[in-house]
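Why do we care about 3D structure at all? Because function follows from shape, and shape follows, mostly, from sequence. That is the central idea of this module. The next example makes it concrete: a single protein chain, its amino acid sequence, and then its structure expressed as tokens.
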Amino acid sequence: MTVNEQFPGPALYVTKGETIIVDVYELEP
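And the structure:
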């Protein structure tokens, strides 16, 4: 998966029990 034209995408650090929301947008060139 690429995020903001980066591969791999940015690292996500999640603490146990923490809830995260990740919005992913596929932008056509």
